[in-house]
Write a structure and sequence with these properties.
1 helix; mainly beta; 141 residues; single chain; Deoxyuridine 5'-Triphosphate Nucleotidohydrolase, Chain A; globular; 4-stranded antiparallel beta sheet
Length: 141
């Protein structure tokens, strides 16, 4: 699978895998900004890209930013036919502001194949051992 990446800003950084074989590639900010506690910001990356049909890019948190600073990503499904600038939505869930500097890693992107379901309306669904149990229905331990 090939991914074409276009720099929209000359100093933008291309996505990069930190270690060979990683599932997620790092995505970098092209701007400085401060995200206050509870605040949501959309950050520019300075790149756009093209995926082959049959693939989707998924934007996920950087585990270090999430665990140490409470930063999480939102709106992380980007379809193969989108050609605009990659924007990363960050939410600061902590009680301390966080400063992003130009060139910082702000998210990671996974590329995955897409399976498209054929939707069929049904009057009944098959029985299962779980039935309609959800949200903790299998117990804590």
């Amino acid at each position: 699978m090939r991914m074409k990446v276009k720099k929209l800003q000359p100093d933008a950084k291309l996505p990069a895998y930190a270690i060979d074989g990683d599932a997620g590639m790092d995505i970098f900010s092209i701007e400085d900004c401060t995200i206050k506690p509870g605040e949501r910001k959309t950050l520019h990356t300075g790149i756009s890209y093209e995926l082959e049909p049959g693939f989707v890019s998924l934007i996920w948190d950087k585990s270090g930013l999430a665990s140490k600073h409470g930063l999480t990503t939102l709106g992380g499904v980007i379809e193969h036919n989108y050609r605009g600038e990659l924007m990363i939505i960050l939410l600061n869930t902590s009680d301390v502001e966080y400063h992003v500097e130009k060139g910082d890693k702000i998210a990671q992107m996974l590329i995955q194949p897409v399976t498209t379901a054929k939707i069929e309306e049904a009057n009944e669904l098959s029985d299962s051992t779980r039935k309609d149990g959800g949200f903790g229905s299998t117990g804590r331990k």
